[in-house]
């Protein structure tokens, strides 16, 4: 009888772990899709789509120390002040805890800020929150590498 109870307990525990892992993987995939959507918007910005990706309380930190709220972030991309020609993300990790996700990656990009060609080589931390079933960028900080 003890072995049957132990087997049931073990099976229940494994099922719980598998279910939690699947749920987290599903959220991780959704966050990764949001990160990719943001990457594409940083190259070819659309005001409505950028606004939809960003939380109202966004804090967007640049590698030069400049910090922008949501309105300034959207304006910088739609006006061409921040102008990425290409962006490649590597070494990305996504960690989800409840309704918060931490994303770290390396960003290599070609820029054309103010018509002047340049390169961006950054290490980036993004914080995403799940609001009404949608992942929104809450914070981002980049440092030069």
TrEMBL record:
Residues 32-137 form the DUF4440 domain. It comes from the Bacteria. Residues 1-23 form the signal peptide. Keywords: Signal. This is Nuclear transport factor 2 family protein. It comes from Spirosoma foliorum.
């Amino acid at each position: 009888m003890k072995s049957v109870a132990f087997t049931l307990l073990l099976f229940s525990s494994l099922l719980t772990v598998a279910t939690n892992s699947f749920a987290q993987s599903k959220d991780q995939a959704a966050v990764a899709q949001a990160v990719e959507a943001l990457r594409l918007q940083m190259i070819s910005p659309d005001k409505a789509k950028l606004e939809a990706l960003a939380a109202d309380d966004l804090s967007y930190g640049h590698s030069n120390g400049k910090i922008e709220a949501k309105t300034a972030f959207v304006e910088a991309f739609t006006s061409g002040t921040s102008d990425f020609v290409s962006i490649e993300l590597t070494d990305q990790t996504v960690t989800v805890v409840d309704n918060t996700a931490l994303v770290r990656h390396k960003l290599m990009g070609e820029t054309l800020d103010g018509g002047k060609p340049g390169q961006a080589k950054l290490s980036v931390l993004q914080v995403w929150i799940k609001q009404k079933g949608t992942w929104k960028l809450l914070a981002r900080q980049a440092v030069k590498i």
